[in-house]
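Long-time lurker, first post.

We've been arguing in lab meeting about whether fe (ii) ion would sit comfortably in this protein at all. Half the group thinks yes, half thinks no, and nobody has a model to point at. So I'm putting the question to the forum: if I give you the sequence and the SMILES, can you give me back a predicted structure of the complex? Inputs are below. Any interpretation is welcome too.
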Amino acid sequence: MADEADETRGILRGVEGTGLRGLWGRTHIPLDRYVDTAALPALHDEICLALAQMPVDYTGGSHRSMGIMPPGAEGQAGTDYGEVIHGLDDEGFAAFRSLADDPGAIDPARRHQETYGEEREHPLSRRQMHWLKYRHGVYFPWKVYVEMIPNRWWGDKADPAGKRFTRLAETLLPRTVAFVRSLPFAHIGRCNLMGLESNDHGTVHRDGDPAEQDAPDQFVTFCPGGPKALYLWDPERRERTPIAGRAYWFNDFDHHGVEAAPGVQYSIRVDGAFSDGFFATLARDFGGAP
Ligand SMILES: [Fe+2]
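Top reply:
Settle the argument with this. Predicted structure of the protein with fe (ii) ion, as tokens:
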């Protein structure tokens, strides 16, 4: 039996002739054959009913100030809330602070030492996001965002400790939760629905920094409502590689974005650690020559 070193060998060899890192020399790993894609239409029905009844959040909106966009693409971000908050005058900052879930946690005297938003010390409240959008024109790409297994920090997403599906997810999305639990993970630590409204694009960015971690994140993305217009950005050829399919894994060290579409498009990303058997299967099926 192949040991772990054999299975991971070549996973980061890169996609030949491109600037993409990929997985085992491929742009992405299609997972349709390993998950029950026949279940997806029923999940789409359940999810649409749930979205109509539950509060949805925004995410994104600060990719440029987070420094996770590829050079030359920064304009795609539109108005970035990190830059807006930094430039607020005292009156504007007072309004921003007043809309926090806990305004008392923000010390106005330290406003330029503190950080705000995604992966920052003070996450934005829903009211702050809406104010930033209405008052300052901030572009939040993902306006249909549901944390089914909430996480405080991105770096904890594979860790199952202390995590669970929200009560709302368990109540309104039972078939979807069961589907996620059926995926071939040893454990999961994060499960989020990421959706774009009509005509919105997902700003190109990368989630993982190869300087900060050895192996790419293990996750499954699935698209109950049909494929979304995901693409990988090849920094050498300066072109987009579309990723279709209803279920896939890709290397999120690679920059990626979503093309705008006429209607809502969404996917669910599940992070964790693949079971040993599943990883070995992928290594067997994709680890050879592309
Ligand atoms: Fe991403």
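For your lab meeting: The chain has two domains: 4-57+140-286, 81-136. The first strand starts at residue 29 and ends at 30. Whichever side wins, do check it experimentally.
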